Amino acid sequence: MPRLQLGDWINSGVNWLRDNLSWLFDFISSVVQGMYDGVNTVLSGPEPLLLAGILALLAWWLRGLLPAVLAFLGFALIDSIELWGEAMNTLALVLVAGVITVVFAVPLGIWASRNRAVSATIRPVLDFMQTMPAFVYLIPGIFFFGLGVVPGVVATVIFSMPPGVRMTELGIRQVDAELVEAADAFGTHPRRTLLGVQFPLALPTIMAGVNQVIMLALSMVVIAGMVGAEGLGSTVFQAISSVDVAMGFEGGIAVVILAMYLDRMTSALNQRVSPLARRALAKQNAKALSGLKVLHWRPATSVAMVGVVVLALVAGGMSIFGDDDEGPTVSANVGKGQSVNIGYINWDEGVASTFLWKELLEQRGFKPKVQSYDVGALYTGMAAGNIDFETDSWLPTTHASYWSKYKSKLENLGSWYGPTSLEVAVPSYVKGVKTLDDLEKKAGTFKKKIVGIEPGAGEMKLMQDKVMPGYGLNKNFTLVKGSTAAMLSQLDRSYAKKEPIAVTLWSPHWAYDKYELTKLKDPKGAFGKGDRIDSLARKGFSKDNPQVAKWIKNFKLTEKQLTSLESAIQDAGKGKEQQGVRAWLKQNPGMANKLAPVPGGGDQKGKDAGAAPMIGYFPWDEDIATTYLWKNVLERRGYKPEIKQYDVGSMFTGMSTGQVDVEFDGWLPVAQKQYWDKYKKNLVDVGSWYDKTSLEIAVPSYVKDVKSLADLKGKAGTFGGKIVGIEPGTGEMKLLKGKVLKEYGLDKEYKVSDGSSPAMLAQLERSYAKKEPVAVVLWTPHWAYSKYKLTKLADPKQAFGASNQLHTLANKSFPKKFPEFNGWLKKWHMTEKELASLEQAIQDAGKGNEEKGVQKWMDANPGIVDKMAPVAP
């Protein structure tokens, strides 16, 4: 019988859906992720024991005093084993998935109960959903939604929906038919019959279904840890992949506590929402023995809610005022809090290099997030853009199949270690086995087993497809699939007993230092040439994160460095990988700066590090650009600058009184002359940093016959009698109104509209798009001249005055208060090209992302920090 290509059809269908309904999947992803983020924020915000008290209070309301005490103790135990954050992530996943499931399951169950055709149709679908192995749902979930929370929630909804639908249908159908008939006989509308008779009587059965939904959801979200869903699932998956008994037991205990709490609370909720159950509860409490009444007493709903609200308010207050977490030590704030997602395979060199980069990126001001994945999920996640980069790709051989499949969606950032080798190894006490040919002859010695690692690993695929057939090992040997940790555990046991064992290994690996092993030679070259260990990234990562990409591209470790790093992590123990990295960095001083050098020397602090100058700025492009540039430079030198926007008049007043220390946009000697003359006794001119400025009126080049200010006369109708201005307090505006318009006889013909620079630019863009005449107040340098074709109107009478220079002005106490900073500013100078490119970078970054724009510009101008703020060694 010919093979039915069912799998290929399903795969084609999945690909078609992904390609044609991406908008729908993006919408679902946004909604689910938003729901999860909201719930997780609420659960993760309060202090652990305070939230445990809130959950215990709910248990008291639902079940009584003893369950409340046990619930509090259970959650306290989770906090004590340092799994509180993961437990709350899991609880958020369960709640979100449970709510979505119930929203769909209950109406579907009601529909099925009232229509036998619907019931017959959905029954096989529910059977399929419930019996399909849970892991299978994760595969299309990755393709549709990438890695992380969303595919886990979607798979959980599908897996946990059947009992919700079935129990709802069953509950409605079990309602006494005579009651329904009586309601119908009295002329009750079917909808009122459903809501007033059937649904209340079916509620106990429906709530039992909800309970099952919650429990199945909990089991599924743990499995979802395999695709990067946060929470205890990730902990359990990591424990399984590393055969870590302690981590697995602790993660399992936390899951059990959550499961028991959710099971007891959802089952007891029926007693609060069902009229029948409330009556049964009242009878039960009445029969309780007097001595035990206190254990059975449950507070009224109003009392419980007041308690919850009070505790929640306390929790909120503690979250606002009690957070003393200092976070990681930042030696050079290059990242400015930017998130970076790093994936890794749970192999020793992968763990070591990943947590090394996690520590380095944190020191450089980034917020890296690391997550362990299986090899296939890692490549799929990177190709989909869910993972930024990873550091453990064995190419060109071991991971050749993955690279071939996904290379069009990935970037290779280069190799950091090599050459490597893949091999089968046996203990040196096993005699007569030196090559893979020798191994084939002694299958009985090794019980016909070769102990392997993760089934998705490239080495395992190479073993199955090439090495074992090449040496005839597939006839007498079985390749045992498991994990790296399981293989190492079996090696340790066999080595201790001096038992023969053959394992898949690779070099470098710390096992060769711990045990005396023989690498079996590969005379046929079935394993291929030695691999290199490459760092791969999602497509576009280098463009989005040029500095990090540059560091990764230059990343190199020697065998001694790598093995010592792995050893330090092994010594630190599971769950303390970053502590091991920090210990290794202390043993290798200067390594952080070597691996992640900061342009200008991020670790060099200024003599006045810790000083906090107040920098004022106008909302003008050159001032925004230079202010955020100096903010970045000063922070790298250990200063703590504050910046604040002012109007021109307020700026000069604030500087004269000492409320503002310094500003970088003093247009002198003309544009701001009146302010300088008024306040110069209390100010100091630190020096000019840019020359050849000009003030002007500009019009689009499509406006003909207007080349100078004199040409504006008589053409007010063309421009609507208006010149679009900027902030009314600026020197240019006062000069325009007080002198320029009068000089050219335009003061009676034109009105200058007060506003702001952004408003003027917005009007220019609108008019330019419609090819409408417009006259605007502008100045040089300005990026608008690059974006639009504009005509600077000539000023033959020199009414705007001579060219200005851009000066740094400061309060008179500034030189003594900040001598180092003052010295840097005196020597500072920018070219037109530098300023224009800096302004453009900030424009490209967009409003609110000025620091990112500055950072990108600085990455493209290495050494700028040393140039602007040199520090003597």
UniProtKB/TrEMBL annotation:
Chief site of localization: membrane
Annotated organism of origin: Streptomyces malaysiensis subsp. samsunensis
Membrane topology: Multi-pass membrane protein
ABC transmembrane type-1 domain sequence ranges: 87-266
The protein, known as: ABC transporter permease/substrate binding protein
KW Cell membrane (keyword) present: yes
CC annotations in GO: ATP-binding cassette (ABC) transporter complex
Record keywords: Cell membrane, Membrane, Transmembrane, Transmembrane helix, Transport
Gene3D superfamilies xrefs: Dipeptide-binding Protein, Domain 3, Glycine betaine-binding periplasmic protein, domain 2, MetI-like
GO BP terms, alphabetized: choline transport; glycine betaine transport
Subcellular location: Cell membrane; Membrane
PANTHER family found in the cross-reference section: GLYCINE BETAINE/PROLINE BETAINE TRANSPORT SYSTEM PERMEASE PROTEIN PROW, GLYCINE BETAINE_PROLINE BETAINE TRANSPORT SYSTEM PERMEASE PROTEIN PROW
Membrane-spanning residues: 49-78, 90-114, 134-159, 201-227, 239-262, 303-322
Family from the record: Belongs to the binding-protein-dependent transport system permease family.
Coiled coil spans: none
Keyword Transmembrane helix set for record: yes
GO molecular function: amine transmembrane transporter activity; carnitine transmembrane transporter activity
